Amino acid sequence: MKKSIAFLLALAFLILPISANAVELAENDAPIPSEDFIKVCDLLFSGNGQAFNQNDENVTHIFCNTYIDAYTNRDYATILDSFFKENVYYIQTHKESVQPREESVYQVAPRLVMTKSYEDSKVHLVRQSGFPYDGKSWYFIVTATGSFTYNDSTFQISSFPNPTISVSFSDLGAAFTGNLESMTTTTPQLNSSRSSASFTVTTKHTVSCPIPGVDYVTGTLGPFTNVSNFTISI
Looking at the whole model, is its pTM more than 0.90? Predict the structure, then answer.
């Protein structure tokens, strides 16, 4: 009985300093806004993005109105912290460009086939829950890029090739490393009027982290599964 009590006390003293070290490391390794995050903010506050809470409610207007002063002052650190404080669950951004027509003096009829390029991102706000980095947060960004053709008379998509998908980790902190474990992308499907195409990207990622109080040992947070739905319109 005495041996069991002694063992439990020793275990308690072992866990306490590890927990303190975990908190200290997380604070010392607090992330600063990355270039990816700044790009997301610029798109969101310029009207080219939307923010949603966990219930899929659009909170863009409320959030941008609340933190417009921080954005005007380029205080991205405050915005970074506020996304989590305001329980923003994900952000979607959109960029597009239309290739100009190639006019010719010999051209009799206007060109009907146009090409539009797009770059859409879904930003997942991820927060670790549980020992040893409870509350540790970061952004996992899934970006779809590509181009499609459409008829500029009927405004119907004529060709929509598979998109190029890339992922990035933003604001993890120097001591943490993100790892993409798997990714699947569905084939783009046109809607009934052929005015838009939709596809889904499902990803699974982990984060490698140092184990507090133990040298030269790396732990793993996750895996975290995220579903990114994209709809690209003319």
Answer: no
